[in-house]
């Protein structure tokens, strides 16, 4: 039997491009989000978009498969963008593991041109020590220097005893605290600047702000 998968993939790509162009004509940007995690981060983003009426035609979420190195994720995002440059912004969500993240930041400086002729770079959305810290901010403010992800997850489980990375409903379980998390993230940046500390930290607030600016108003 003949394999039609390439044709199906091409058709889906063309459908995505058409949907993005329709949204662009309505004044909405198109964003590409590359996730280090295969489960929690993509489920959270999709849940956020559904709950806050953000057209998923404008938001393409891709997980990094087995890649855990931020620099590798940046290169994959750049390669995918070069194959399909019909996006206004490109983000990479990753854990902040310091030295590898420094390399990723250098890689991300490479300038890219989108279909409209605008120049952009890959924007890193890093959380130290792990994405679960952003989830924790939906429930409480914490500036303690976590030694590892397990310590963050332990605190998170005080609020979400059944937390697991494969939870498709993760945003539904934390979403009521989204504005709280955003406020906590702003406070954290201010406290880090005052103290000179570097951990914990998260850039998720800026990505969430971008997505919320794309909410449909009817």
Secondary-structure content class: alpha/beta
| Number of helices, where a helix is a run of at least 4 consecutive DSSP H or I residues | 9
Radius of gyration: 18 Å
Low-confidence stretches: none
Q: What would you say this structure looks like, in words?
A:
The protein has 218 residues and is an alpha/beta fold. It has one domain (5-212). It is built from 9 helices and 7 strands. The strands form 2 sheets. A 5-stranded mixed β-sheet has the order 2-1-3-6-7, sandwiched between helices. It has a two-stranded antiparallel ribbon with strand order 4-5. Helix 2 links the parallel strand 1 (31-35) and strand 2 (59-63). Helix 3 runs parallel beside helix 4. The radius of gyration is 18 Å and the shape is globular. The model has no long low-confidence stretch (mean pLDDT 88).
Summarize the topology.
Layout lengths: L4 H21 L5 E5 L4 H12 L7 E5 L6 H14 L5 E7 L3 H10 L3 E2 L5 E2 L1 E7 L3 H5 L12 H8 L13 H5 L3 H18 L5 E2 L1 H9 L6
Parallel strand pairs: 1-2, 1-3, 3-6
Antiparallel strand pairs: 4-5, 6-7
Helix pairs in contact: 3-4, 8-9
């Amino acid at each position: 039997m003949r394999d039609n998968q390439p044709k199906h993939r091409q058709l889906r790509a063309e459908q995505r491009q058409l949907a993005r162009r329709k949204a662009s004509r309505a004044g909405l940007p198109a964003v590409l989000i590359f996730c280090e995690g295969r489960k929690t981060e993509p489920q959270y983003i999709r849940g956020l978009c559904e709950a806050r009426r953000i057209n998923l035609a404008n938001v393409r979420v891709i997980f990094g498969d087995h890649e855990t190195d931020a620099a590798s994720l940046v290169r994959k995002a750049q390669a995918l963008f070069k194959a399909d440059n019909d996006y206004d912004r490109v983000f990479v969500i990753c854990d902040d593991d310091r030295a590898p993240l420094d390399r990723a930041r250098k890689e991300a400086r490479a300038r890219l041109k989108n279909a409209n002729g605008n120049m952009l770079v890959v924007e890193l959305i890093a959380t130290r020590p792990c994405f679960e810290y952003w989830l924790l901010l939906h429930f409480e403010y914490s500036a303690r220097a976590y030694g590892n992800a397990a310590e963050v997850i332990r605190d998170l489980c005080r609020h979400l005893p059944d937390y697991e990375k494969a939870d498709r409903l993760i945003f539904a379980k934390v979403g009521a605290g989204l504005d709280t998390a955003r406020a906590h993230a702003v406070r954290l940046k201010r406290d880090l600047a005052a103290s000179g500390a570097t951990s914990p930290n998260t850039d998720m607030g800026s990505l969430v702000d971008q997505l919320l600016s794309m909410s449909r108003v009817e």
